[in-house]
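Q: Okay, next protein. This is ABC transporter ATP-binding protein from Micromonospora antibiotica. I've checked the sequence twice, so it should be correct. Can you predict the 3D structure?
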Amino acid sequence: MGTVAVQGLCKSFGKVQALDGVTLDVPDGAFFVVLGPSGAGKTTTLRAIAGLDRLDAGTVHLDGRDATTDAPAARDLAMVFQNYALYPRHTVYENIASPLRARRRPSGEISAAVERMSDLLHIGRLLNRRPAQLSGGEMQRVALARALVRSPRAFLMDEPLTNLDLKLRVEMRTELTRIHRSLGATFVYVTNDQVEALSMADQVAVLKEGKVQQVGTPTEVYERPANQWVAGFVGSPPISLLPCHAEGDRLVGAAGWTLPRPRWAAAQDGRPLLLGLRAEDLSVERRASATLPGELYGLEPLGDRTVVDVRVGAQILKVKSRPTITGTPGEQVLVAVDLDRAHLFDAGTGLSLSEAGR
Ligand code: ATP
Protein backbone atom coordinates (compact mmCIF):
# COMPACT_ATOMS: atom_id res chain seq x y z
CA MET A 1 0.00 0.00 0.00
CA GLY A 2 1.14 3.55 -0.58
CA THR A 3 -1.61 6.12 -0.21
CA VAL A 4 -0.67 9.66 0.77
CA ALA A 5 -3.34 12.11 1.90
CA VAL A 6 -2.65 15.61 3.10
CA GLN A 7 -5.34 17.90 4.40
CA GLY A 8 -5.30 21.65 4.99
CA LEU A 9 -1.50 22.01 5.01
CA CYS A 10 -0.42 25.51 6.07
CA LYS A 11 3.16 26.67 6.40
CA SER A 12 4.60 30.17 6.62
CA PHE A 13 8.20 31.31 6.46
CA GLY A 14 8.10 34.75 8.08
CA LYS A 15 5.70 36.77 5.94
CA VAL A 16 5.66 34.23 3.10
CA GLN A 17 2.68 31.88 3.20
CA ALA A 18 4.28 28.94 1.37
CA LEU A 19 1.27 26.60 1.86
CA ASP A 20 -2.24 27.89 2.33
CA GLY A 21 -4.59 24.98 2.94
CA VAL A 22 -3.16 22.34 0.59
CA THR A 23 -5.31 19.19 0.38
CA LEU A 24 -4.25 16.30 -1.85
CA ASP A 25 -5.29 12.66 -2.10
CA VAL A 26 -2.72 10.42 -3.73
CA PRO A 27 -4.06 6.93 -4.50
CA ASP A 28 -1.92 3.83 -4.07
CA GLY A 29 0.32 3.27 -7.11
CA ALA A 30 -0.41 6.66 -8.69
CA PHE A 31 2.04 8.79 -10.64
CA PHE A 32 0.87 11.99 -8.99
CA VAL A 33 2.45 15.23 -10.19
CA VAL A 34 2.35 18.54 -8.32
CA LEU A 35 2.79 21.21 -10.98
CA GLY A 36 3.35 24.90 -10.37
CA PRO A 37 5.67 27.81 -11.06
CA SER A 38 8.73 28.60 -8.97
CA GLY A 39 7.74 29.53 -5.41
CA ALA A 40 4.31 27.84 -5.64
CA GLY A 41 5.04 25.65 -2.61
CA LYS A 42 5.86 22.36 -4.34
CA THR A 43 9.02 21.51 -2.40
CA THR A 44 7.38 22.65 0.85
CA THR A 45 4.51 20.22 0.13
CA LEU A 46 6.94 17.32 -0.41
CA ARG A 47 8.89 18.21 2.72
CA ALA A 48 5.64 18.28 4.68
CA ILE A 49 4.77 14.78 3.44
CA ALA A 50 8.28 13.61 4.36
CA GLY A 51 8.00 15.22 7.80
CA LEU A 52 11.05 17.44 7.32
CA ASP A 53 9.38 20.69 8.44
CA ARG A 54 7.04 21.56 11.27
CA LEU A 55 3.61 22.54 9.90
CA ASP A 56 1.48 25.47 11.09
CA ALA A 57 -1.67 23.45 10.42
CA GLY A 58 -2.84 20.36 8.55
CA THR A 59 -2.51 16.61 8.66
CA VAL A 60 -0.59 13.93 6.76
CA HIS A 61 -2.08 10.45 6.49
CA LEU A 62 -0.03 7.56 5.09
CA ASP A 63 -1.96 4.42 4.20
CA GLY A 64 -4.90 5.83 6.10
CA ARG A 65 -2.98 6.33 9.34
CA ASP A 66 -2.33 9.75 10.87
CA ALA A 67 1.44 10.29 10.46
CA THR A 68 1.44 14.06 11.06
CA THR A 69 3.74 13.85 14.06
CA ASP A 70 5.82 10.85 12.94
CA ALA A 71 9.56 11.36 12.52
CA PRO A 72 10.79 11.28 8.89
CA ALA A 73 12.46 7.88 9.29
CA ALA A 74 9.24 6.35 10.62
CA ARG A 75 7.28 7.35 7.50
CA ASP A 76 9.01 4.89 5.17
CA LEU A 77 9.22 7.31 2.24
CA ALA A 78 12.11 7.78 -0.20
CA MET A 79 12.95 11.24 -1.46
CA VAL A 80 14.73 11.91 -4.77
CA PHE A 81 16.13 15.41 -5.27
CA GLN A 82 17.34 17.22 -8.37
CA ASN A 83 20.79 17.29 -6.83
CA TYR A 84 21.98 13.70 -6.94
CA ALA A 85 25.12 13.51 -4.83
CA LEU A 86 26.72 10.11 -5.44
CA TYR A 87 29.55 8.76 -3.30
CA PRO A 88 32.57 9.63 -5.51
CA ARG A 89 34.88 6.89 -4.26
CA HIS A 90 32.31 4.11 -4.57
CA THR A 91 31.48 2.19 -7.72
CA VAL A 92 28.07 2.47 -9.32
CA TYR A 93 27.22 -0.92 -7.80
CA GLU A 94 28.12 0.25 -4.29
CA ASN A 95 26.25 3.52 -4.75
CA ILE A 96 23.08 1.68 -5.70
CA ALA A 97 23.55 -0.88 -2.95
CA SER A 98 24.17 1.71 -0.21
CA PRO A 99 20.56 2.17 1.05
CA LEU A 100 20.21 -1.61 1.44
CA ARG A 101 23.63 -1.96 3.10
CA ALA A 102 22.61 0.76 5.57
CA ARG A 103 19.60 -1.40 6.42
CA ARG A 104 21.85 -4.46 6.80
CA ARG A 105 20.01 -6.50 4.18
CA PRO A 106 21.55 -9.90 3.29
CA SER A 107 24.04 -9.75 0.42
CA GLY A 108 22.00 -12.07 -1.83
CA GLU A 109 19.04 -9.71 -1.58
CA ILE A 110 21.31 -6.70 -2.27
CA SER A 111 22.85 -8.15 -5.42
CA ALA A 112 19.44 -9.20 -6.75
CA ALA A 113 18.01 -5.73 -6.10
CA VAL A 114 20.98 -3.92 -7.69
CA GLU A 115 20.73 -6.18 -10.73
CA ARG A 116 17.01 -5.54 -11.09
CA MET A 117 17.42 -1.76 -10.79
CA SER A 118 20.37 -1.58 -13.15
CA ASP A 119 18.41 -3.58 -15.73
CA LEU A 120 15.42 -1.30 -15.32
CA LEU A 121 17.55 1.81 -15.77
CA HIS A 122 19.81 0.32 -18.46
CA ILE A 123 23.01 0.89 -16.47
CA GLY A 124 24.15 -2.73 -16.07
CA ARG A 125 27.36 -2.07 -18.03
CA LEU A 126 28.33 0.81 -15.70
CA LEU A 127 28.31 -1.10 -12.39
CA ASN A 128 32.09 -1.14 -11.97
CA ARG A 129 32.67 2.51 -12.84
CA ARG A 130 33.01 5.41 -10.43
CA PRO A 131 30.84 8.56 -10.71
CA ALA A 132 33.67 10.60 -12.29
CA GLN A 133 33.59 8.18 -15.24
CA LEU A 134 29.89 8.81 -15.97
CA SER A 135 28.02 11.35 -18.08
CA GLY A 136 25.43 13.61 -16.40
CA GLY A 137 22.58 11.48 -17.68
CA GLU A 138 24.23 8.28 -16.45
CA MET A 139 24.78 9.83 -13.01
CA GLN A 140 21.11 10.78 -12.89
CA ARG A 141 20.13 7.20 -13.69
CA VAL A 142 22.44 5.84 -10.99
CA ALA A 143 20.96 8.30 -8.48
CA LEU A 144 17.46 7.17 -9.44
CA ALA A 145 18.47 3.53 -9.15
CA ARG A 146 19.88 4.20 -5.69
CA ALA A 147 16.60 5.81 -4.62
CA LEU A 148 14.41 3.18 -6.24
CA VAL A 149 16.31 0.15 -4.97
CA ARG A 150 14.35 0.21 -1.74
CA SER A 151 10.64 -0.50 -1.62
CA PRO A 152 9.32 2.30 0.54
CA ARG A 153 5.68 3.20 0.95
CA ALA A 154 6.04 5.95 -1.67
CA PHE A 155 8.67 7.89 -3.60
CA LEU A 156 8.77 11.68 -3.31
CA MET A 157 10.59 13.24 -6.26
CA ASP A 158 11.62 16.88 -6.41
CA GLU A 159 12.31 17.90 -10.02
CA PRO A 160 14.73 14.98 -10.50
CA LEU A 161 15.23 15.69 -14.22
CA THR A 162 16.10 19.39 -13.92
CA ASN A 163 19.84 18.95 -14.43
CA LEU A 164 19.53 17.03 -17.67
CA ASP A 165 19.75 18.45 -21.18
CA LEU A 166 16.56 18.48 -23.22
CA LYS A 167 17.19 15.23 -25.12
CA LEU A 168 17.93 13.28 -21.94
CA ARG A 169 14.94 14.79 -20.18
CA VAL A 170 12.66 13.60 -22.94
CA GLU A 171 14.24 10.15 -22.78
CA MET A 172 13.99 9.99 -18.99
CA ARG A 173 10.31 11.02 -19.06
CA THR A 174 9.53 7.85 -20.98
CA GLU A 175 11.85 5.80 -18.77
CA LEU A 176 10.30 7.06 -15.55
CA THR A 177 6.81 6.23 -16.77
CA ARG A 178 8.00 2.74 -17.67
CA ILE A 179 9.77 2.31 -14.30
CA HIS A 180 6.70 3.51 -12.46
CA ARG A 181 4.58 0.95 -14.27
CA SER A 182 6.94 -1.89 -13.58
CA LEU A 183 7.40 -1.03 -9.88
CA GLY A 184 3.72 -0.33 -9.30
CA ALA A 185 4.80 2.12 -6.57
CA THR A 186 3.30 5.47 -5.59
CA PHE A 187 5.20 8.44 -7.04
CA VAL A 188 4.62 12.00 -5.84
CA TYR A 189 6.60 14.08 -8.32
CA VAL A 190 6.95 17.86 -8.30
CA THR A 191 7.88 19.94 -11.32
CA ASN A 192 7.40 23.35 -12.88
CA ASP A 193 7.49 21.77 -16.34
CA GLN A 194 3.99 21.29 -17.69
CA VAL A 195 5.18 18.93 -20.44
CA GLU A 196 6.67 16.64 -17.79
CA ALA A 197 3.43 16.80 -15.85
CA LEU A 198 1.16 16.14 -18.80
CA SER A 199 3.31 13.36 -20.24
CA MET A 200 3.94 11.34 -17.08
CA ALA A 201 1.12 11.89 -14.59
CA ASP A 202 -1.99 9.86 -13.89
CA GLN A 203 -3.15 12.87 -11.89
CA VAL A 204 -1.91 16.45 -11.75
CA ALA A 205 -2.42 18.93 -8.93
CA VAL A 206 -1.81 22.49 -10.08
CA LEU A 207 -0.43 24.70 -7.33
CA LYS A 208 -0.15 28.49 -7.24
CA GLU A 209 0.98 30.59 -4.26
CA GLY A 210 0.43 27.72 -1.83
CA LYS A 211 -3.12 26.96 -3.03
CA VAL A 212 -4.33 24.03 -5.09
CA GLN A 213 -6.03 25.38 -8.21
CA GLN A 214 -7.18 22.11 -9.73
CA VAL A 215 -6.62 18.36 -9.45
CA GLY A 216 -7.37 16.12 -12.40
CA THR A 217 -6.00 13.90 -15.12
CA PRO A 218 -3.67 15.64 -17.59
CA THR A 219 -6.53 15.70 -20.10
CA GLU A 220 -8.94 17.28 -17.62
CA VAL A 221 -6.46 19.96 -16.62
CA TYR A 222 -5.68 20.80 -20.24
CA GLU A 223 -9.14 20.46 -21.75
CA ARG A 224 -11.20 21.73 -18.83
CA PRO A 225 -9.08 24.19 -16.83
CA ALA A 226 -10.88 25.27 -13.66
CA ASN A 227 -9.81 28.87 -14.02
CA GLN A 228 -8.05 31.36 -16.21
CA TRP A 229 -4.75 30.93 -14.42
CA VAL A 230 -4.61 27.14 -14.96
CA ALA A 231 -5.61 27.67 -18.61
CA GLY A 232 -2.70 30.09 -19.00
CA PHE A 233 -0.13 28.00 -17.14
CA VAL A 234 -0.81 24.68 -18.87
CA GLY A 235 -0.31 24.63 -22.63
CA SER A 236 2.30 25.85 -25.06
CA PRO A 237 2.02 28.27 -26.75
CA PRO A 238 -0.10 29.77 -23.97
CA ILE A 239 -3.85 30.06 -24.48
CA SER A 240 -5.00 33.41 -25.92
CA LEU A 241 -7.47 35.28 -23.70
CA LEU A 242 -9.72 37.85 -25.36
CA PRO A 243 -11.81 40.32 -23.31
CA CYS A 244 -15.45 40.18 -24.40
CA HIS A 245 -19.05 40.02 -23.18
CA ALA A 246 -22.21 38.21 -24.21
CA GLU A 247 -24.97 40.11 -26.01
CA GLY A 248 -28.00 38.02 -27.01
CA ASP A 249 -26.80 35.32 -29.37
CA ARG A 250 -23.36 36.88 -29.91
CA LEU A 251 -20.08 37.24 -28.05
CA VAL A 252 -18.78 40.75 -28.57
CA GLY A 253 -15.08 41.46 -28.24
CA ALA A 254 -13.61 44.57 -26.69
CA ALA A 255 -11.81 44.97 -30.03
CA GLY A 256 -15.16 45.12 -31.88
CA TRP A 257 -15.31 41.54 -33.26
CA THR A 258 -18.35 39.33 -32.80
CA LEU A 259 -18.73 35.55 -32.78
CA PRO A 260 -21.80 33.34 -32.46
CA ARG A 261 -22.43 32.74 -28.77
CA PRO A 262 -21.74 29.07 -28.00
CA ARG A 263 -24.72 27.25 -26.51
CA TRP A 264 -22.71 26.46 -23.38
CA ALA A 265 -21.86 30.11 -22.67
CA ALA A 266 -24.36 30.67 -19.87
CA ALA A 267 -23.02 34.07 -18.83
CA GLN A 268 -25.22 37.07 -18.11
CA ASP A 269 -25.34 39.64 -20.91
CA GLY A 270 -22.84 42.43 -20.41
CA ARG A 271 -20.76 40.66 -17.74
CA PRO A 272 -17.00 41.03 -18.46
CA LEU A 273 -15.62 37.74 -19.81
CA LEU A 274 -12.46 36.31 -21.27
CA LEU A 275 -12.70 34.01 -24.27
CA GLY A 276 -9.90 31.44 -24.08
CA LEU A 277 -8.66 30.07 -27.39
CA ARG A 278 -5.90 27.48 -27.72
CA ALA A 279 -3.58 27.72 -30.71
CA GLU A 280 -4.61 24.31 -32.07
CA ASP A 281 -8.29 25.30 -32.11
CA LEU A 282 -7.61 28.24 -34.41
CA SER A 283 -6.60 28.39 -38.05
CA VAL A 284 -5.82 31.13 -40.51
CA GLU A 285 -8.58 30.82 -43.13
CA ARG A 286 -10.15 32.68 -46.02
CA ARG A 287 -13.68 31.60 -45.23
CA ALA A 288 -15.20 29.98 -42.18
CA SER A 289 -18.38 30.30 -40.19
CA ALA A 290 -16.89 31.71 -37.00
CA THR A 291 -13.97 34.02 -37.64
CA LEU A 292 -12.07 36.85 -36.02
CA PRO A 293 -10.58 39.48 -38.33
CA GLY A 294 -7.00 40.37 -37.51
CA GLU A 295 -3.64 41.43 -38.78
CA LEU A 296 -0.73 39.07 -39.28
CA TYR A 297 1.86 40.05 -36.69
CA GLY A 298 4.56 37.44 -37.05
CA LEU A 299 5.43 33.83 -37.88
CA GLU A 300 7.31 31.48 -35.57
CA PRO A 301 8.51 28.41 -37.51
CA LEU A 302 9.06 25.45 -35.14
CA GLY A 303 9.93 22.67 -37.60
CA ASP A 304 6.85 20.48 -37.46
CA ARG A 305 4.52 23.49 -37.22
CA THR A 306 4.50 27.26 -37.42
CA VAL A 307 2.86 29.41 -34.77
CA VAL A 308 1.25 32.42 -36.45
CA ASP A 309 0.75 35.51 -34.30
CA VAL A 310 -2.34 37.45 -35.31
CA ARG A 311 -3.20 40.80 -33.75
CA VAL A 312 -6.90 41.14 -32.89
CA GLY A 313 -7.43 44.58 -31.36
CA ALA A 314 -4.85 44.87 -28.58
CA GLN A 315 -4.41 41.08 -28.21
CA ILE A 316 -2.08 38.67 -29.96
CA LEU A 317 -3.68 35.35 -30.89
CA LYS A 318 -1.40 32.32 -31.21
CA VAL A 319 -2.50 30.09 -34.11
CA LYS A 320 -0.92 26.68 -34.66
CA SER A 321 -0.51 26.22 -38.42
CA ARG A 322 1.11 23.88 -40.92
CA PRO A 323 4.84 24.49 -41.40
CA THR A 324 4.42 25.61 -45.03
CA ILE A 325 2.21 28.61 -44.21
CA THR A 326 3.45 31.96 -45.53
CA GLY A 327 2.35 35.54 -44.94
CA THR A 328 3.56 39.09 -44.53
CA PRO A 329 3.30 41.09 -41.31
CA GLY A 330 0.53 43.68 -41.64
CA GLU A 331 -1.54 41.45 -43.95
CA GLN A 332 -5.26 41.24 -43.06
CA VAL A 333 -6.28 37.68 -42.15
CA LEU A 334 -9.25 35.81 -40.74
CA VAL A 335 -8.83 33.42 -37.83
CA ALA A 336 -11.33 30.57 -37.79
CA VAL A 337 -12.38 29.60 -34.27
CA ASP A 338 -13.52 26.15 -33.16
CA LEU A 339 -16.02 27.46 -30.63
CA ASP A 340 -16.89 23.99 -29.36
CA ARG A 341 -13.39 23.80 -27.91
CA ALA A 342 -13.16 27.39 -26.67
CA HIS A 343 -13.13 28.37 -22.98
CA LEU A 344 -14.91 31.17 -21.23
CA PHE A 345 -13.82 32.74 -17.96
CA ASP A 346 -15.38 35.33 -15.69
CA ALA A 347 -13.04 38.32 -16.10
CA GLY A 348 -13.52 39.26 -12.44
CA THR A 349 -13.05 35.94 -10.62
CA GLY A 350 -11.12 34.14 -13.36
CA LEU A 351 -13.33 31.06 -12.84
CA SER A 352 -14.32 28.95 -15.81
CA LEU A 353 -17.89 29.43 -17.04
CA SER A 354 -17.64 26.92 -19.85
CA GLU A 355 -17.54 23.61 -18.04
CA ALA A 356 -20.94 23.65 -16.35
CA GLY A 357 -22.79 24.38 -19.58
CA ARG A 358 -21.11 21.86 -21.90
P1 ATP B 1 10.80 25.99 -6.99
O1 ATP B 1 10.16 25.43 -8.22
O2 ATP B 1 11.51 27.30 -7.26
O3 ATP B 1 11.62 25.00 -6.24
P2 ATP B 1 8.59 25.61 -5.13
O4 ATP B 1 7.25 25.61 -5.74
O5 ATP B 1 9.18 24.31 -4.77
O6 ATP B 1 9.58 26.46 -6.02
P3 ATP B 1 8.93 26.23 -2.35
O7 ATP B 1 10.39 25.91 -2.33
O8 ATP B 1 8.01 25.26 -1.72
O9 ATP B 1 8.46 26.53 -3.83
O10 ATP B 1 8.75 27.65 -1.67
C1 ATP B 1 7.49 28.26 -1.48
C2 ATP B 1 7.71 29.65 -0.90
O11 ATP B 1 8.26 29.55 0.40
C3 ATP B 1 8.69 30.51 -1.69
O12 ATP B 1 8.21 31.82 -1.70
C4 ATP B 1 9.97 30.35 -0.93
O13 ATP B 1 10.77 31.52 -1.11
C5 ATP B 1 9.50 30.22 0.49
N1 ATP B 1 10.43 29.37 1.28
C6 ATP B 1 10.64 28.06 1.11
N2 ATP B 1 11.52 27.58 2.03
C7 ATP B 1 11.87 28.63 2.79
C8 ATP B 1 12.75 28.81 3.91
N3 ATP B 1 13.43 27.77 4.45
N4 ATP B 1 12.85 30.04 4.42
C9 ATP B 1 12.16 31.08 3.92
N5 ATP B 1 11.30 30.98 2.89
C10 ATP B 1 11.17 29.79 2.31
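A: Here is a summary of the prediction. The CA atoms of residues 17 and 309 lie 38 Å apart. Residues 13, 16, 18, 36, 38-44, 192 surround adenosine-5'-triphosphate (CB under 6 Å).
Q: Noted. On to the next one.
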